[in-house]
Amino acid sequence: MSKTVKHKTADTPPSRRMPNRDVRPFFEKLAATIDEPVTELNYDSNFELLIAVILSAQATDVSVNIATKQLYPIANTPEAILALGEDGLKSYIKNIGLYNTKAKNVIKTCRDLIEKFDSTVPDNRKDLESLAGVGRKTANVVLNTAFGQPTMAVDTHIFRVGNRTGLATGKTVLIVEKKLVERIPEDFIVDAHHYLILHGRYTCQARTPKCGACPVYEECMFKDKATFLEL
């Protein structure tokens, strides 16, 4: 007899589209469950946030926080990090994946911030995306978290949650991002990024979603959700 293999939910196709009537209750329930819809990256300034987000690409927030806990007391301005140089910066971030490339990007970003933006983090997409290591997702995080703009940064968690729940389905990150911005109620749009990422990180997990503890179980369109009720 062949061994039963548990279904890999991370690889499931998109669910059916969530009905419009369920979108507001979906976010109301997440808001009632998640008290603090904020990033788990530690920072005390817009610059610290920008650097932390650059470092977080393909890395965990935990690993970034470990690195910045040592880095920021020593250097937390563009000038101070630039003075460290690539090698000096690497000594603080070597626990983070792709740290060689990230060190190079951070140093270039610091130089550009000083020379082009008076050492101030830009509050618009065009200028942010001109910085090394800053793509659309990073820009969206900074615009949303630092400046309160209604942007949606779609990472692996949000991409999964959007497709699995039927809230916003699509084959690409950009498609999911645009659908989310279109569907999310205006009064939830600023915090929606954090509601969705925290829900994906701790409840709607990739391979073993905790459907039994899910506050939006009724609204979710995932056809196999009953299978995971005991988790």
What does this structure look like?
With 231 residues, this protein is mainly α. It is built from 10 helices and no strands. α2 packs antiparallel against α7, α4 packs antiparallel against α5 and α8 crosses α10.
Strands, helices and their partners?
Elements: H1 20-33, H2 46-55, H3 61-71, H4 78-93, H5 99-117, H6 125-129, H7 136-147, H8 156-165, H9 173-183, H10 189-202
Helix pairs in contact: 2-7, 4-5, 8-10
Binding site for [4Fe-4S] cluster: 204, 211, 214, 220
GO molecular function, one term: class I DNA-(apurinic or apyrimidinic site) endonuclease activity
Keywords: 4Fe-4S, DNA damage, DNA repair, DNA-binding, Endonuclease, Glycosidase, Hydrolase, Iron, Iron-sulfur, Lyase, Metal-binding, Nuclease
Q: What gyration radius follows from the Cα positions, in whole Å?
A: 19 Å
Estimate the mean pLDDT confidence.
94
Helix content: 40-55%
Protein structure class: mainly alpha
The total of helices stands at 10
Q: What percent strand?
A: under 5%
Order of helices and strands: HHHHHHHHHH
- Sheet with most strands: none
Quick one: overall form? elongated
Give the CA-CA distance, first to last residue.
Answer: 27 Å
Residue windows where pLDDT falls under 50 for at least 5 positions: 1-7
Number of strands: 0
Pfam families: EndIII_4Fe-2S, HHH, HhH-GPD
Cofactor: [4Fe-4S] cluster
Protein name: Endonuclease III
Domain HhH-GPD: 55-202
Highlighted features:
mainly alpha; disordered N terminus; 10 helices
Short description:
Its cofactor is [4Fe-4S] cluster. With 231 residues, the chain is mainly alpha-helical.
